[in-house]
Amino acid sequence: MAHLLLVEDDSTFSKLLTNFLGKHGHQVKACTSIREARETLGKGSSDGPFEVLMLDYRLPDGNSVDFLKTLRSEGNRTPAFIMTSFHDVRTAVTAMQIGAFDYITKPVNPEELLMVLREALNKGEVTSVKTAPKAKSNAQSGKQSLDYIEGKSKVAKQLFEYVRLVAPTDMSVIIQGESGTGKEHVAKSIHRLSKRADGPFVAIDCGSLSKDLAASELFGHKKGAFTGALQDKIGQFEAADGGTLFLDEIGNLSYDVQIKLLRALQERIIVPIGSTQQVKVDVRLIAATNEDLIANAATGDFREDLYHRLNEFKIEVPALRKRGEDLPIFVQHFVDKANEELERNVRELSKEVMDVFQKYDWPGNLRELNNVIKRLVLLSKEEVATLSALPSEMITAMEDQQKPAPGSDLKALQETHEKEMIEKVLQEVRYNKSKAAKLLNIDRKTLYYKIEKYHIE
Ligand SMILES: Nc1ncnc2c1ncn2[C@@H]1O[C@H](COP(=O)(O)OP(=O)(O)OP(=O)(O)O)[C@@H](O)[C@H]1O
């Protein structure tokens, strides 16, 4: 049995969900607004602690992405997922960057809800630090992990050429790319192919670090350095000694922490908070961002000197929509993975599903593809997954995407204008085609051609 907090303002849906989850042995506390949820999560409330937060995206007093951002900045690490309409998927993708465990699209499918809940419960507390297992030997670390797809497209080949080129050096690297494109995967590849492969790979999600705790997380602290520092703590810089430190969403670090980071990089020395002792560290830094750090530097949000220190080498990870022939390769990979995880036996996706996938623009990139396929596999009873297992909103969204926005098709606009003009002039000259051609400044042959083209009577 798990203790869950549900924040949902639709009371009928909230009751349904509470009953359904209750039948599956969970205890649900339901709130209807952010304010109520804050009170429930607040100190002294007898309802907590909660194991998972289930948040409707649109709430009467705000949206749950902002709410979650605040919770994470206050140090709350309870796994959370957002329930959203398909049209808000882009927002849900942002939510995952700030530490939501997953998102689920409405109307909520019960099996899918239980799957996401199970995964959230298995994951336990959301941490900002993810340590990859140490590579066992040089020979092994040189190989790509089985979970890793390189792809065949031109952009994929170039990406891995850069990875192989920079990996053996000790250069700092900035990995830039949209959310979910696989930046962390690329960072791990660089580590595995580097001379540090036998050392640790420590990944920190700067997006989910609270401002106050970021410095202590990175550089460690001494007992009593601040309220709550009950014992000495080693920072992740020290934990990554001899290996690679991967800072995801680096643009989120505060200015103060950026200064400390620059010093650590330049002098290879860190000083834990509340300590006077310098600690020598040997760490290679890889940073990832989906922001334009140069633009942030121009506005003063990111230190330019730190940017240049990090930018010894830059790698762009392409968006899924630009990876063309890689899509079917990733699809098969994620289908195999989902079959294994969910004990299903989906062989492939139908041609219609693949057509939708090819046309869809995948704002959440590989992460979104992985999620959509997991749901497809979960909901498919047959060996071939069909359109019926796709959220209908995805198909509609894809169709809307295909249509040009009103007024944006320049050619159609020009043609409409041209037709109207020819009709007007022809009326003015009482259908004397020679006169009309003269006034329109075209020859008679062209005028005849256009009259036929636009079906002008
Ligand atoms: N080359 C790859 N082969 C197989 N799976 C991949 C690959 N790249 C990424 N993935 C999968 O796609 C998902 C997103 O990858 P990852 O977390 O590395 O993206 P990211 O760009 O770092 O995301 P964010 O911007 O949110 O930090 C993960 O589930 C990961 O397992």
Structural summary, described in words:
The chain has 20 helices and 19 strands. α1 (about 10-25) links the parallel β1 (about 5) and β2 (about 25-30). The chain has 4 domains: about 5-125, Rossmann fold; about 130-315, Rossmann fold, CATH 3.40.50.300; about 320-400, Helicase, Ruva Protein, domain 3 (Orthogonal Bundle); about 410-455, Arc Repressor Mutant, subunit A. α18 (about 410-430) crosses α19 and α19 crosses α20 (about 445-455). The longest helix is centred in the last third of the chain and has 19 residues, at about 410-430. The protein is of the alpha/beta class. The N and C termini lie far apart (about 75 Å). The strands form 6 sheets. It has a 6-stranded mixed beta sheet with strand order 8-10-13-16-9-17. A 5-stranded parallel beta sheet has the order 2-1-3-6-7, with helices on both faces. Strands 4-5 form a two-stranded antiparallel ribbon. Bound molecules: adenosine-5'-triphosphate. Pfam families: AAA_lid_14, HTH_8, Response_reg, Sigma54_activat.
What is the CATH third-level topology name of the largest domain? Rossmann fold
Q: How many β-strand stretches? A: 19
Taken from the alpha-carbon principal axes, the silhouette is globular
| CATH homolog superfamily of the largest domain | P-loop containing nucleotide triphosphate hydrolases
Count of individual helical segments: 20
Major β-sheet profile: 6 strands, mixed
Helix content: 40-55%
CATH architecture grouping of the largest domain: 3-Layer(aba) Sandwich
Distance between the termini: 76 Å
Please tell me the total number of domains: 4
Strand order of the largest sheet: 8-10-13-16-9-17
Mean pLDDT: 85
CATH class descriptor of the largest domain = Alpha Beta
Structural class call reads alpha/beta
